[in-house]
Specification:
With 217 residues, the protein is α+β, with helices and mostly antiparallel strands. It contains nine helices and five strands, in the order βαβαββαααααααβ.
């Protein structure tokens, strides 16, 4: 590395990148942001992470974090002023782990089929949507008595899952807004309007080798 700041390779609209950027912004950890074009990955990214996905965080000591969950955990370990991360070993920590796993391993594939239904002609788009609704119902139930997924204050789970629910809603926003999941819609709208989200969605120009550093946040 040429500098002392971590380097974040990212793509603004990727839900994994959004949750990593939101956590870095919240924690106040400054990084050098390198916004990439997915169809033209820079060789510097491929050199440190051959799997060619984003986000990737390259730390000053050469450590490479290739998963958004790892980037989020690293950022919160640096600074977590509002206690997003539940106490290790607590029921809340177990609930967060299980809920994020259900999102990443179960809901995300269903979201992809719903969003890109033309690539999966075995079923109509509405069928793929119905598969994802089971997870939406679980979140709705969690939000019935609390403002956030794990209780009365925002947590890592909310930020980890929010970008994927946003993407699901955007496939057919009229349908989503007409659905009976009032609590989930309120939760999503609150996060969409949050300054933290709008700040990380600023459109940076694509990074090219030799470009000056863009500092984030």
């Amino acid at each position: 590395m040429t500098g002392e700041l971590p380097v974040l390779y990212s793509f603004r609209r990727c839900p994994y990148a959004i949750r990593a950027r939101m956590t870095l912004c919240y924690s106040g950890v400054q990084v050098e942001l390198r916004e990439v074009v997915l169809r033209d990955m820079p060789r510097e990214l491929l050199a440190c992470s051959p799997k060619a996905t984003v986000p990737v965080l390259l730390l000053p000591d050469g450590t490479v974090l290739e998963e958004s969950r790892d980037i989020m955990e690293w950022a919160l370990a640096q600074h977590d002023p509002d206690h997003w991360r539940p106490q290790p070993g607590s029921p809340a920590a177990a609930a967060a782990r299980d809920l994020i796993a259900a999102n990443d391993l179960g809901f995300k594939p269903q979201l992809d089929r719903y969003k890109y239904a033309e690539r999966y002609p075995q079923h109509p788009r509405a069928w793929y949507r119905s598969q994802g609704e089971c997870f939406l119902d679980e979140l709705e139930q969690r939000l019935t008595h609390h403002d956030w997924l794990l209780g009365d204050h925002i947590s890592l789970a909310d930020i980890a899952i929010f970008p994927f629910i946003r993407q699901f809603a955007l496939v057919d926003r009229a349908w989503f807004d007409a659905s009976p999941r009032l609590n989930l819609r309120h939760w999503l709208d609150g996060l969409l309007q949050a300054r933290l989200f709008t700040a990380v969605m600023y459109k940076y120009p694509p990074w090219r080798s030799g470009d000056p550093a863009a500092l984030f946040p």
